[in-house]
Write a structure and sequence with these properties.
single chain, 156 residues, 7 helices, globular
Amino acid sequence: MTGPTPLADLARERLAWRGAGKCFVLTNGCFDLLHPGHVALLEAARREGDLLVVALNSDASLRGLKGEGRPVVPETERAEALLALEAVDRVVLYDEPTPIEAIRALLPYVLVKGADWATAQVVGRAEVEAAGGRLVRVALVPGRSTSAIVDRIRQP
């Protein structure tokens, strides 16, 4: 895979994975300026199941969340970088502010988010748990964030 998978195609593929007894995990984020904190999160997520799907904010979605000047890296390149990682099996883009539609369409067995998100604030948690899945919160690597990197770059 070199690029994102359309949601409809991924939903069909998910049925085959379930039929084969595969446990698939989903995490989401912007992943602008991929860094070691991202890699640690993705590797931890992958250890939770057989396959890892990353729901990736599109450029429009990311810009809406982070403001003008973001993303630094376009969505196609962010998806390509994620797919180059051994931990990541598929990437799906979403244009909305949250990945709720992708989560509802895919209903992963495990939903993974960074521990900076309070359990009650994790988008899709209720839907995943109602379908028999679970939420896993992963500890973050201290001092590693894209926003911090961007801030350092922009300082004179």
